[in-house]
Structures are given as C-alpha cells and as structure tokens.
C-alpha cells in the first residue's frame, strides 16, 4: 500500500488539514477538561479512608451538635479519638475572597489526619497557642501570609460583639499528601471560639458543626455508625454518622447532576467535531476518487485503496487528538489554579488521557472509513472513462 | 487477422459479448467478438465513438468482464479470476497508458513511475533503480523530481508510459494516448511506443481514432457497433 | 455595482447537499450546547428576578449577607416588628411585618441522595403579606400553632415525602403536609410552617429575619442608613428584590462563565469547519468564479457573494441549534445555591436572550468562517480561474 500517498494527500490542502487538526485539537482538549472536572469531583471521595467517621446532625448541615455529645462519643468503644470541627464562615477583607476556615481540636485533628504535612512553622505553636492557626499552602501564597503574620477574619456567623475582626497568628503552613482536604483552608483552635462565645465576647450558635471520630484498628465503621446513630435517636439532636467518603459524596451530589450535565455537553462537542471531520474526509474523498481509480487500474487491491483513505482519517485524528491531549496536559495546572476550591484535585489522570487517545483513534477510523467505503464501489474501469 | 509465423497468441478472445442495461434498454457494446493478438504485435483498434473499442481494451486488461465468451490473455483465462486475482494479474502483466495521463498529482515523476513496483517484492533501492531506468528510456531522467503540474502534456504522457513499462509487463494497453497532445508530442509518444515494441519486444495495443497514430501501428482493426468492420494493414 | 444573485449561492448550497448538511448540523450542535447552558442560566436567574418585591423590606443582622447567617433574639425582633414607622399598616392598624425562621434541612431526593431543603417558619402576618404572591394549588394553608406544613410545588417532584398527607420529620417531630403552593419566585422550592412550632422542633430560639411591607412613599436609602445605626436594634436592610439578586451571584456567574468559555472554544472549532467547507466550495467553483469575473462582476461582489453563502450556513446552523435546544424549555433541574447552601429548583428557560445570542453567534460564525475563502475568491484573476477550473 502506498503509505506515502496518505501523507501527500493530507498535505495537498494545507489549510484544510490545518483547520481540521486544529478543531480536533480544540474538541479533544475540551473533552479532556470536562472529564477531568467530573473526575475531580470525586477526588475527595476517592481519597477518603474508612477509619475516620463523621457525626453530623441528621436534621441539617447548619445545626450544631450539643457540646455534651463530645464526651459521649469519646466513650463509645472502638473510638480512638474525637475532634470537633466548626465551619467558621468568615471572610478576609472582602466577601468575594473566599477560603474556608474551621475551628478544630488541634492535636486530635492533626493526629487523625496524617495527610497534613507542616512544611513551614511550628506544629507545637498551633497545639499550644490560643489564637494560633495553620494555613494551607495555596491560600498562604495567594494572600502572602507568612509564619508569624496576623490574619484578620471578619465573622458572619460568629461575630465579635465589639465589632472587630477575629485575629489569628499564623503558626504554620501545611501541604497535603492526598486530596482529603484542600490547601486553601485555615484551621484554628475550637477552644478559642468556644471561650469567646461562653465569655460573652462574641455571638453565634454554640456546639460544634460536626465531630470527627478516629476509629481504632480493625473496628468495623458500619457497626460504630449504627451504634452512634442509635445513641441519639431520641434527641436532643438526631445524628447521622457516615464514613468520610459518604460525607464528601454528599457535597458532590448537592451540586446537582453534574456528571449528567457534563456528559451532555461533552456529547454535543463530540457530535460537532465528528460531523466536521467527516465533512472534511468526505470532501477529500470526492477529490481523490479519480486517483483511487487509477490505483485500482494499476493493480492495487481494493484493500490497499481503502487503506489509503482510512489512513488519512487516522493520521488526521491522531495528530489532532495528540495536540489536544498535549494542550490538556500542559494547561492542567493552570486550570486547576483557576478552579481553586470548587474542583480540588483537578488533574489529567492517565485514564482520561488514554480515553482521549482511544476516542481520537475512533473518530479517525470512522471518518476515514466513510470515504474509504465509497472507494470499494469504485471500479478501476471508471478510470478509463473519466480519463479525459 | 492472419498470422503466418508460429508466434504465441498473447491475447485470445472468443465469442465475447458485453452488454449493459441502461434505462430499461439493453445495449450491446460487443457482439460475439473474436480477437487474436500475437506476441510482439503493435495493433491499433479504431472505430467511431460508441463502437466499443474502450470496452474491448478494458476486457483485454482485465478491468472488465464479458457477459459471455472467453478472454485468454498472457496464458490466463481472465473470466475465471476473481477481482483480487485480476488486480494481481494486471499488476504483473499489463501496463496501461490513458488518454488523460492519470498521474497522481501529489507524487513526483519518479514516485509515479515507482507506484506499480509497490505491488512487487522489490526493495526500495531496487524500485528506485527500475524507475530511474524507465524514466531514462522515455528520455525524462532529468525531470524525475518534478510533479505532474510542472510537466508539459507530452512529458506527462511519457512519464505515464514509463510507469506502464516499469514492471516489465508483457502487454501495453493505450487508450487514446495522443488524444490530449499537440502534434509534435503525439509524434514523439507514438515513436516511443514503436521503440518499446521493436526494441524491447512489448506487445502494444492502442485504441485511437487518430489516423496518424494508427499509421504508426503494424496493423489496424476497425470496430463498428461491436463487430469487426474490416481488417486493416497487417504485418 | 451589481451583486451576484443570491439564488446562485442558495442553489450552490443545495447542489453540495451532503457537505452543506454536515456543516449546518455541526454548527447546530455547537450552538445547541451553548444555548443549553445559557437557558440553564436564564432559568436560574428568572426565578430570582421574578420573586423579589420592591415594596417588601428584609431586615437581617448587620454583617449577615444571607438569612442563614442572620439572627435576632425575640426581643430584638419584637422591636423591629412593632416600631419601624416606615412599615405599612393593615386596615386595623397592625404593622405589616413578620418574623421568620430559615433553615436548610436535610431531606432525601426522589432519585436517591440527599439535599438541603429550605424550611421557613413564618408568623401568620407573613401569609397576609404574601396573600397575592402565593397560590395554593392543592389542599390548604397550614394552621398556625400546629405541626402542619405546606410544601412548595417544585419540591413535590424532587423531594421524597412531599405529597399531600405525607409526613416529614424535622429533627424528632413529625409534620404533616396539608397543602401545596406555588409562586413566581423562590418560595416554591421551600417548605413553610408555623414559626414557633418549627423553632421548637429544630431547637432554634432565634429568628432569622424580619420582613415588612414598606409604605409607598418611603425613602429606602434613608431607611437603610438609619437602621444600620439604630441604637436599639441595628439591622441590615434591603428590598426583597435586591436581596434575591444578591443570592444569584455565584451560580449565575458560573453558568455565564461556562457558557462564554464554551462559546469561545467551540466557536473557534465551528469557524474552522465553516472555513473548510467554504474553501472546498471555492476550490470546486474556481471555474465559475472565473466566469463571473469575466461577466463583469467586481471582486467586491464576489467577496460579498461568498460571505453571504457562509452567512447562510451559519444562520442555518444557528436555527438547527435552536431547534435542538427547544425541547429543553421547561425541563426542571435543581442545584444547591452555594450562597444559602440550599436546594433551588429551576427550569431551563429559552428566553429571547438565548435566541438572540444564538442568532448573533451563528451570524458571527458564518462571517468569520467565510472570511478567508471570500477574500481568496475575490482576489482570483479571471484568467487564472478559468484556466485552473
């Protein structure tokens, strides 16, 4: 089979080939990004462990668990340690500059989350100082927070009665080993919040939003969860105990049926590009009819001629797909930064890249097969009739 | 259609009929035709348009099959071969020259001439050598890297002839080889064909309605409405 | 200057049917995706734009931007309810003001999974204020002081337990659904019940907000400022219309951003497709262009002719895209409004904006796509075209 003809024919109309490769690259890039969005949503779920359980109010995310629950949970057999976690919901300077803040029990929390790595500053200070906080690497970089700085946070749910912002001293900067959290959050000691509320210097709901439980080794999370739920069945606040994975999954499902949404968009993109590439290939096929007839007249088999047409589709799509995949791979870190907290863990996994390759190949085979099939009906004798 | 010397018949058609249905009617293009060509012959098939001469050439070259009758070319009964077998047979036995040259525009002259050799088992250097030799034979060795768009009509046809002979076929079939050419180019093409016939012993069959082209053949035959009209000059 | 007749272009498009079809449908798919996203955004925004009344003021705790964050003690709420002069009065002299609770409660979705549904506890005066805004579709209003609730119409299809007669448990207390209501705004995604009963069940002793109907002649900015610095009960005030608009922020912006992103990226690919098609048309009609030039048509006419043809391709593509998107109109979906963290149900809405954007976009596509081939066609010399064709 004259392989050379595959490339020569593609170069025959340089603009057309360039445009088709270009639109393929764009479409494949887009499809990779869309897929990565969906995959990243599950990142938190995927990286969760089963030795951490989360107890939350069965009623609402916004209802706190009474303070008395802490001791009762610690007493459950199989529970190694408990840590309170309270969503603070404030903002730094401007409401639109959004990053999360949580009040936690410092030592217990860091112990049950070995994924947190203190990269700068002192873990000790966080554990011992009343208003110390640890800041995620991304937020620290974005706002220029350094160890020792004082970060003022304006409260919304919890407000200081004198109207001043809450102030925290940066004890350390953290990074994460895996995406069980994200590197944009600020954690401070829950006791500071609790004391301020009890002491009358601040207003806000008492109790803690959720309580994390770290299970001892070999303990069955399902049993513990059922036991805890049963403990508080009659109030004062009913609870719902879930694994970390389920907890994170609930946030994903809240945003709505994103996978469906994204798949539909992806489908539209795919349809548009497939039609466009088929269009190009059919155009080329029509132009090359004559040459294909000549090849048959010279004695090339039907399959050889089929191969020349099919080959053009494949080369076109492999090229376009390759560029698109390369683009996706290269721009992935930048996009991840743009998306920030909304889609933590955005990255081009090898699964995404492999599917993109397969897809490109598939488009190539399909779009090349259509004009190639037309050549099968082409008789060599036509070459004589159309010769003039 | 007489042959006095005991040479082999390269082409032997017997009782060949070819008809088409077109719009409900049956058109008979070739009507129970017999035809024999000896090895080393140089024949011109002539006739008005619609007489069936191109169809006859197609049948000889294995590009078409008759409705009935036998087509023996270069020792093979073509009616018994399947299309893939015909393609393979054609690659090894027939060189075709078309009126419209039919060179592949994206390939250079050298690459066009090499094309039929891709169907053989020759190595790349062997192919290149054969193609170069064929181009030399037709006098276009210095145009080897030019594309058809950069050649004149006469040059294109000569490249086409080089392509037709590069795999050393027994038979050269030419359908109106001078139709698109000016007088001077036409003459040189016909001279080339004559040389290939006389010096290399190739059997040449030309379909033409150019009397000057026919004149350079050893003999002419005339078709009219699918039947022989009369015998021309024999050799 | 003589223009090349349009029928020539239209016929050319018809002659190359399969190419025209493929290009038009390809552009159509692009337009459909973009219009679909925009319809989603329009559906979301419409609810918030329709809901807010400009004559109703919302009082929140200073610094709170949403009801969730806000809180008033009973005594503070009392002050607001009774002693704001700007609030209109009923016929028998009571202020048209009411205190409300707002909580996002975890409930199960019909198709599986959980979501946070807004639950609103109201005082009887709220029903008076909302008399013309709400419409009872089935059943009746809940009785004040009882464990009865009425459910917003949009929830009945999405959340389990929302049909008439069914029971929803808030914390440990069961509430019976006695009515289904609807409105033009956000309330039809909410569950309403008695303020005190709900407060007890959910263990809330604080009210989230106070609403009040303003007298017609009120100077709203003055009121806002006065209330901010009020000595007794400082509060952040805004009209209900403004309040709802502030809620749309993130989702609307996200959808618009997504739409724009897709428009640019897919738009570029669509322009490429159009250029390819028009370029091929040009190559196939080189001879015809030569004839046109010989006949006396100036290069500008030839340029305009090709531009017109690619424009038709674009517009046809836009129409196909709109046709593909139309079935979406009215289809309901829901998401969580990250500002209030509650579920909001809305429907795709093909507004004039969506249609307009689609048409403009496809016109732009057609023009951009046809530009290069049109210029090339115009620059061809007649002789060269006739020779090559």
Offer a quick outline of the entry:
Chain A is an alpha+beta fold. Chain A contains 14 helices and twelve strands.
Low-confidence stretches of chain C: none
Low-confidence blocks of residues of chain A: none
How many runs of DSSP E, i.e. beta strands of chain C? 12
Taking the sheet with the most strands of chain C, its summary is: 10 strands, mixed
Oligomer: heterotrimer
Can you describe this structure?
With 388 residues, chain A is of the alpha+beta class. Chain A is built from 14 helices and twelve strands. In chain A, strands 1, 2, 3, 4, 5, 6, 8, 9, 11 and 12 form a ten-stranded mixed β-sheet that branches. Chain B has 235 residues and is an alpha/beta fold. Chain B is built from seven helices and ten strands. Chain B has helices at 53-60, 83-93, 109-114, 124-137, 153-165, 183-200, 211-215, and strands spanning 9-22, 25-38, 42-46, 68-73, 76-77, 94-97, 171-175, 203-207, 219-224, 227-231. Chain B has a six-stranded mixed β-sheet with strand order 6-7-8-3-9-10, with helices on both faces. In chain B, strand 7, helix 6 (183-200) and strand 8 (203-207) form a beta-alpha-beta unit. In chain B, helix 4 (124-137) crosses helix 5 (153-165) and helix 5 (153-165) runs parallel beside helix 6 (183-200). The termini of chain B are close together. Chain C has 389 residues and is an alpha+beta fold. Chain C folds into two domains: 6-49 and 247-388, no CATH class; 56-215, no CATH class. Chain C contains twelve helices and twelve strands. In chain C, the strands form two sheets. In chain C, strands 1, 2, 3, 4, 5, 6, 7, 8, 9 and 10 form a ten-stranded mixed β-sheet that branches. In chain C, a hairpin with a 4-residue loop joins strand 11 and strand 12. Chain C is elongated. Classes of the chains: A alpha+beta (388), B alpha/beta (235), C alpha+beta (389). The A-B interface holds A 1-2, 4-5, 8-9, 11-12, 290-291, 294-302, 379-381, 383-388 and B 54, 57-58, 63-64, 83-84, 87-92, 94, 96, 98-100, 102, 104-107, 111, 115-116, 118-119, 163, 175-176, 179-180.
